[in-house]
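From: lab user (bench 3)
To: helpdesk
Subject: output format question, protein + magnesium ion

Hello, I'm new to running complex predictions and I'm not sure whether the block I got back is the full result or only part of it. Here's what I submitted:
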Amino acid sequence: MSENKKNTNSVDAVDANTTEEAARSNFIRTMIDEDLESNKYGGRVVTRFPPEPNGYLHIGHSKSICLNFGLAESYNGVCHLRFDDTNPASEDMEYVESIKRDVKWLGFDWGDKLFFASDYFERLYEFAVELIKKDLAYVDSLNEEEIREYRGTVKEDGKPSPYRTRSLEENLDLFERMKKGEFEDGDHVLRAKIDLSSPNMKMRDPLLYRIRKNDEHYRRGHDWCIYPMYDFAHCLSDAMEGITHSLCTLEFENNRELYDWILANVELEVNPPPEQTEFARLKLSYTVMSKRKLLRLVKENHVSGWDDPRMPTVAGMRRRGYSPEAIRDLAERVGVAKANSVVDFGMLEFSVRNDLNFTAPRVLCVMDPIKVVLENYPEDKVEELEAPYYPEEIPKEGSRMIPLTREVYIERSDFEENPPKGFRRLSPGNEVRLRYGYVIKCDEVIKDDDGNVVELRCSYDPDTLGKAPEGRKVKGAI
Ligand code: ATP
Ligand code: MG
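Helpdesk reply: Thanks, we reran it on our side. This is the complete output you should expect:
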């Protein structure tokens, strides 16, 4: 899980001075600049963030969110939030709600541009019929394993399914009956008719539709017995919404040829069609980001839920106390690259610390106490000491009062009976400063029968509040 095993001092590891300008320029911006220059999309910049509602958003998604919404913001464009909900098995309204909440919390606004691919099922069906009528799609009745076999390998051409030459009428009839629920899952699929010897395996007659007769879709119920595949639904959803720049992660590089093929072969209202561009996904060291694995952690009760503070989800990080500014800062620092790499978890912690430094009031507490008795401090005296909320270098006001009495508690680890060389905290016969208070000296150590330290008898120097003791050095503050 997400823990920083190396415990690096990431402040050193990160160039804190990265200028905003440098962090912001990237190859996608260069491309958009060129498109604006050539007036390719009539000056429009329309991006989208397309999550599948089958889990909560994680830190990786936040990179895509910052990129898509951030580009729209800085080019005066719009970014759509589109739920890519074409798989009835695993999707749920709880996830839709959580995703909306998290995108908003990160600081982004989709306005009225909220879409669901499942609202396009009717239009997508029409597009599929169009491809069949153009002899660019056919109903195949091989089973999954046979299809894989017939597809060949990178070294070997595929061979045509015996059903590839079905007549147009038969294809239309079968596809309609698939839709009506006359067949069982796996009986037939709809495939694009492209090229069985293409060096790109994605182009060897990819699947466009499959039967999922009995699954209930969380929005469409049992309206549909067939569901479009990602490659078919995604590009057409982009086109129907008038997306200009469709940004996705590098694994989809080989899908781009299919994306373009589908858009080139149906009648669209937009011209030119949207263009897919890939960027490197965010990988963080020691951090699991597969939704499948995160789902297991939740379902098998290894964590208390998707928002367990140990989860790398946006909701978990919110509970952990991270701010949206810190997460956006990480996205900016990581930048947009064309090659995959792993980002050190310390970089996220740097962004968080850097942000909290300016916003989080400092308060201290003792977790594992030892009692300290200040023997020269009057029995019934209570003194209010001022503890500022922020360190000196933070230009923020505010403090709280801490009562000082004859008895106080210090952290057990702040005392050593036999201090190692260089120990700067409390030890017998030595002085240390109580944070925001006086310099104290340890005069006597009291132990129980087992030899555990239970109390320290100390004296305080009343002349050291807010100033250094005269004539001697005190090395530490506790
Ligand atoms: P799955 O494992 O279910 O395919 P996914 O991570 O692709 O999950 P989606 O809901 O499809 O999840 O992702 C929504 C968007 O977020 C996609 O555009 C995807 O490219 C992007 N995304 C997902 N993970 C990362 C990541 N680690 N870095 C950057 N972008 C990401
Ligand atoms: Mg996905």
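A quick orientation on your result: The chain has a mean pLDDT of 94. Let us know if anything else is unclear.
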